[in-house]
Amino acid sequence: MRELCEVAVQAALAAGASYADARAVVKRNQYVLTKNGRVEAVSDVETEGIGVRVLVDGSWGFAGDRRLDRDGAEAAARRACAFAEAAPGGGERALAPVAPTSGSYRTELRTDPFDVSLDDKVAFCLAAENGLRADGIKVTQATVRAQKERKLLLSSAGADVEQEIVECGGGIEAIAVGDGMMQVRSYPSGHSGVSRQAGWEFVEELALAREAPRIAEEAVALLRADECPSATTDVVIDAEQMALQVHESVGHPTELDRIYGTEAAYAGTSFLHADDLGKLRYGSEHMNITSDATTPSGLGTFAWDDEGVAAVREPIVDAGLLAGFMTSRETAARLGSGAGGSMRAEGWNRMPLVRMTNLHLEPRSGSREELIEGVKAGSYFGTNRRWSIDDKRLNFQFGTQIAWEIEDGKLGRMLRDATYTGITPVFWGSLDAVAGPEEWTLYGFTNCGKGQPGQTAHVSHGAAPARFRGVQIGVKA
Questions:
Q1: How many whole angstroms separate alpha carbon 418 and alpha carbon 137?
Q2: Are 68 and 50 a contacting pair, CB within 8 Å?
């Protein structure tokens, strides 16, 4: 792979590129889904190829080739240069400097998930799903997934890095039907479970079979629950829902390509401006958001991004003040701050984009129970069901699978069809408390879409339950 990347970079430079990088990638994905006691889907797919990115006369060009041989490497380099030459020029693009680097990185794990047979994975899902069966439950399902990606990056700026990243995860879901309605409960997350950069031991630690009876019981109970009322009230939001809140209302709007408007085709731009850095009040003093590509077991964890920039941990929001953006070498140079480090591509046939790494709501102090005790009248929201946010990432509405009324500091009746809505800086400005490190949990999602043609990134968010004052709840979509 190294020789092929060298061939590609040299071919691009010979064809007129002022900068070139090449990524050779071999990726394997495996997925198992059981539904209502039967195998619904099994897939095991491997793909390989090389992607070459170049700068020619101030324009980017990119091309990929599925052939991991010399012909494929040279062809990709020539096409990338031809595409750049056909694009409108505009003078040289500045790139933030990056030190030449070499090395390797591999996910720490005990059991390679690809050493676990598909038969064993199917049996694992069926056992977990069996615990979901109960009167009133009409659909049960369980999933497990695994991914292994080996990639090598070489660049004309001196990057020579090899990384092997292994992920796996899983989840369960129960759908209850009755009285003309449908209710759903999922564990450990509302969207195809949770994944981490880890071995099969993480899937076993999820204890899906142990949690299944509780999930089924709550799904059935939601059919009898009262509807979430419409009110302006105090809320406590669980860690899983807070992870998605961070993703949608902080992660995407602080991607600097969205702010500059160079990424808008998928899910819009941002309400932020580049000169808001260090000035804009994003939320209350309790709000601390960190981008951290070094988080152990995070899906956004690596040693170097896809431009060869070393992984870093840096603040995005510091005590409520906007403190940083997620950047590429190009956007960092344009801003005059930062060094990049957030560029990732879905695979060899995609150009790197500014993507979230691991973005965390930092914990403060206290327990979930203490947050609830601080609410005289309000609601507790748990497990995301759906979301909607405008193309500036400003106005949003989230719906959760389940909620509970809070009365005099205690959880009361269960509520169904729960929603809350807000305006991003106003909502975060109402943040009153975040629970402590003992409540902080890392959630990994595999469905973050961006770009055209589309790319799906895998990201992790750490969060603890959080309390907000004066939030509008129960608004119908």
A1: 20
A2: yes
Residue 94 φ/ψ, nearest 5 degrees: -80, 140
- When the pLDDT of each residue in the chain is averaged and rounded to a whole number, the result is 96
Sheet holding 321-322, edge to edge: 321-322, 313-318, 289-292, 359-361
- Cβ atoms of 279 and 265 within 8 Å: the answer is no
Q: What is the pLDDT of residues 197-218, one digit of tens each?
A: 999 999 999 999 999 999 999 9
Q: At what angle do helices 118-130 and 208-224 cross, to 10 degrees?
A: 40
Distance in angstroms (rounded) separating the CA atoms of residues 127 and 217: 17
Report helix, strand or coil for 452: coil
| Helical ranges in 255-412 per DSSP H | 256-260, 329-335, 368-373
Which of 142, 195, 186, 200 has its CA nearest to residue 445?
Answer: 195
Phi then psi dihedrals of residue 422, to 5 deg: -175, 175
Whether the Cβ atoms of residue 223 and residue 181 lie closer than 8 Å to each other: yes
Torsion of CA 187, 191, 192, 196, to 10 degrees: -80
pLDDT > 90: percent of the chain: 95
pLDDT at position 477:
60
> What's the whole-number mean pLDDT along residues 455-464?
97
Q: Which residues of 112-121 are buried (b: 16+ CB within 10 A; e: fewer)?
A: ebbebeeeeb
Residue 197 neighbours by CB under 8 Å, 6+ apart: 107, 165, 166, 167, 297, 298, 299, 301, 444
Helix (H) or strand (E) holding 403: strand 395-407
Residue-wise pLDDT tens digits, 89-125: 767 789 999 999 999 999 999 999 999 999 999 999 9
**pLDDT one-digit tens code per residue, 280-336:** 999 999 999 999 999 999 999 999 999 999 999 999 999 999 999 999 999 999 999
Backbone angles phi, psi at 173, to 5 degrees: -150, 140
Residue (of 377, 387, 382, 467) closest to 427 by Cα position: 467
What CA–CA distance (Å, rounded) separates 177 from 140?
A: 12
Element (H, E) at 144: strand 137-155
User: Do residues 101 and 137 make contact, with C-beta atoms less than 8 angstroms apart?
Assistant: no
